[in-house]
Amino acid sequence: RMNVEIKARLSDRDALLRRLEPMAEKHTVLRQRDTYFRVAHGRLKLRRSTVCGGGVPGEESCSLFFYDRPDARGPKLSRYQRPQLDGEPAALTLQDMLNRSLGTLGTVCKERHQCVRS
């Protein structure tokens, strides 16, 4: 799979959400915890997400991502693989295995707003 990633700074997130929400068919708020592991090429991260607004509150998902993208400013083409994991226990076991075998680079916790329109 591929996507184009664009990161930007926002001076007023609430103002942007007020403009996006009327256009969105679905607005979901997620709390995400990304754990990054040491690898020779590309990036490897384990993402654990919990729905905290919209969708089914408390619903959890876990994915392992391997992706390769340039370290550059501006839009970046990212090629990735993302298998879904079967629940939190499997994710915690996998996280422990990857940490013991590869080592952890760091963890990023964030809140993500997904405004989706078909």
Automatic annotation (TrEMBL):
GO terms for molecular function: pyrophosphatase activity. It holds the Pfam family CYTH. Residues 2-82 form the CYTH domain. It comes from the Eukaryota. This is Putative adenylyl cyclase. It comes from Ixodes ricinus.
